[in-house]
Amino acid sequence: xxxxxxxxxxxxxxxxxxxxxxxxxxxxxxxxxxxxxxxxxxxxxxxxxxxxxxxxxxxxxxxxxxxxxxxxxxxxxxxxxxxxxxxxxxxxxxxxxxxxxxxxxxxxxx
Length: 110
Description:
Radius of gyration: 14 Å
Order of helices and strands: HEEHEEEE
Number of strands: 6
CATH topology: Barwin-like endoglucanases
CATH class: Mainly Beta
Largest sheet: 6 strands, mixed, barrel
Strand order of the largest sheet: 1-5-2-4-3-6
Structural class: alpha/beta
Strand content: 25-35%
Low-confidence stretches: none
Distance between the termini: 26 Å
């Protein structure tokens, strides 16, 4: 991470450790009647291991425009370094995003 990204991470109260970028290789937009709805990100198991996250964990998806909380699902059919997003605002196919483990042990700011 460069200094600007670190400052942005601190501003958002996020873990600013090692988190390589991922390319969005697919985007799913759900409709109001769909059974599966809400923000979700799919990663390969080895990409999740690098980020110290596991399936069904709540993670932060950070793009250039904004960051969103999303549920993580493991999908080993994806290419290495790729991810699929569902209902994540602020990200589009072929963009680069970061998936960051939430730091739930940090003190809250007032």
